[in-house]
Automatic annotation (TrEMBL):
One of its GO terms (molecular function) is zinc ion binding. This is Uncharacterized protein OBE1-1. Residues 142-207 form the Zinc finger PHD-type domain. It is found in: Nucleus. InterPro entries: OBE1-like_PHD (IPR047578), OBERON (IPR004082), Oberon-like_PHD (IPR032881), Oberon_CC (IPR032535), Znf_PHD (IPR001965). Residues 331-400 form a coiled coil. Keywords: Coiled coil, Metal-binding, Nucleus, Zinc, Zinc-finger. GO terms for cellular component: nucleus. GO terms for biological process: maintenance of root meristem identity; maintenance of shoot apical meristem identity; regulation of gene expression; root meristem specification. CDD domains: PHD_OBE1_like (cd15612). The gene is OBE1-1. It holds the Pfam family PHD_Oberon.
Length: 479
């Protein structure tokens, strides 16, 4: 099969690769997405993370991509490209319902990459420094400082600018020292008397400042009814840290109250009791602020300024409320996709643990086998040694046996010869006796025969002496 690699997606010309995509079966394309999802999780260790950084660099360095060329890409090819560029796995989800053109817009930073927000950017054609940088920043869901988005928008962990409605994480703002004591833009405009500076937030986008006590009050009024004890603890902790350096009375009171409420929650006081107290404090601070401003108005412009402030406050509150309602829907949508991602991550984690256990088990087995092999080797060496010894013994025994059998054979031969000698001797004696008898009977009649007999006797005597000599020779080597 014409295999497509992730690096091909990052590098190869769009149209040529699109036709290769069209030739692949759907299952193969799903496998390719799963492969990239795994790289994006980074769970495979530093090598995988390096691979992702490389892919992203390759995509970012390309000069051949345009909205028109991406519109001609294969759908899966485009999803993979967007996921590489944004680093967001959600674009690889099987149930993703985003049009091809919306994906192209996400790729070219004209649509928010947050699937739960997905608005056209820059929002309201904002021309602030951050939005006009066209780096994919979305002022309706992302933090001005870190560029990230999450699902905590209805909490004290996000603060909005009263002037430009851009959002910032309170933690990011505290780290960047953009939450300090000072005078908010509205108070400056109102030209109120020089009261003690309050806690304010300075917006990076427009440079405006927003007061924080009223903001905290609005967040608590709009959202605290849904909070459980853990959420309330988190919110109180944010308040405690935000109002820590307060110099004005109300800020100090709120800081103390947050601190005290945390203690009380820890010692078992009910969430509703603690909330009621906080709301009472917010109410008191509101009355005090109203008193202060009405005093101010006596000095400057009494009725009109007062109603203008009330209007602005009302407007801010209603804006907050409408944003809050929108955000709740967004959060729900985003939470669903997050949950499915979480589940996937959890599954992978479980698989990883199982694989680790399995690997551990195999390693133990290998170690056991190695020990057994070492034992067997030692045994084999021992047996080899014994076999060598036995072979040496056998050789010795064979040598001894050979020597013995040679001796036995020699003995046998000598005995046999002796026996034959005795037989020959007996024969010789018998013939000798016979000749003697014949000789005695015939000497009287035939002198010629007498001569023949003498010859035979001489011959017999000679052969007998020769045999004796041979017998002496054969028996000689026997000890
Ligand atoms: Zn902006
Ligand atoms: Zn957005
Ligand atoms: Zn942030
Ligand atoms: Zn602003």
């Amino acid at each position: 099969m014409d295999r497509i690699h992730l690096r091909d997606i990052a590098q190869a010309p769009i149209e040529a690769l699109a036709s290769r995509f069209h030739a692949q079966p759907d299952e193969y394309l799903e496998e390719l997405k799963a492969e990239l999802r795994e790289v994006l999780t980074g769970m495979g260790g530093p090598r995988q993370r390096e691979e992702f950084v490389l892919l992203q660099k390759l995509v970012q360095a390309r000069g051949d991509l345009s909205p028109a060329s991406l519109m001609r890409s294969h759908r899966t090819q485009l999803e993979l490209l967007v996921a590489i560029k944004t680093g967001i796995q959600a674009f690889l989800h099987p149930d993703i319902c985003v049009t091809q053109s919306a994906l192209v817009e996400v790729f070219f930073h004209t649509r928010c990459r947050n699937m739960a927000c997905h608005v056209q950017i820059p929002v309201d054609d904002c021309s602030c420094e951050v939005c006009s940088a066209k780096t994919g920043f979305c002022s309706s869901c992302m933090c001005l400082l870190c560029g990230k988005f999450d699902f905590d928008v209805n909490t004290c962990r996000w603060v909005g600018c009263d002037s430009c409605s851009h959002w910032t994480h309170t933690d990011c703002a505290m780290r960047a020292r953009q939450i300090t004591t000072g005078t908010s833009s509205k108070k400056k405009k109102g030209g109120g008397a020089a009261a003690a500076p309050e806690m304010i937030f300075r917006c990076r986008a427009c440079g405006g400042t927003s007061e924080l006590l009223g903001w905290a009050r609005d967040v608590f009024r709009a959202c605290s009814s849904d909070w459980d004890i853990n959420e309330l603890v988190r919110e109180l902790d944010s308040l405690r840290r935000i109002f820590h350096g307060s110099e004005d009375q109300n800020g100090k009171k709120l800081h103390e109250k947050a601190h005290e409420s945390l203690e009380r929650l820890r010692s078992g006081t009910d969430v509703s009791v603690v909330l009621k107290e906080i709301h009472r404090l917010f109410q008191e601070t509101e009355v005090e602020e109203a008193d202060d401003s009405s005093e101010d108005k006596k000095v400057v412009e009494p009725q009109e300024a007062c109603s203008r402030i009330a209007e602005v406050v009302k407007e801010a509150v209603s804006k907050m409320e409408s944003v809050a309602a929108e955000k709740v829907v967004d959060v729900k949508r985003a939470r669903l996709s997050l949950e499915s991602c979480d589940r996937e991550v959890e599954d992978k984690r479980r698989e990883l643990t199982e694989l680790q256990i399995e690997r551990q088990r195999k390693r133990q087995q290998i170690e056991e086998l190695e020990t057994i092999i070492r034992l067997k080797q030692a045994e084999a060496e021992m047996f080899q040694q014994r076999a060598d010894e036995a072979r040496r013994d056998a050789d010795d025994l064979q040598r001894i046996a050979l020597a013995k059998s040679e001796k036995v054979e020699e003995e046998y031969a000598s005995r046999y010869l002796k026996l034959r000698l005795n037989e020959a001797e007996a024969e010789r004696r018998y013939l000798f006796e016979k000749i003697k008898l014949q000789e005695m009977s015939r000497t009287q009649n035939d002198p010629a025969q007498m001569v023949t007999m003498c010859k035979i006797q001489y011959l017999l005597n000679r052969s007998s002496s020769k045999r004796d000599a041979t017998a002496m020779e054969t028996s000689a080597p026997t000890p």
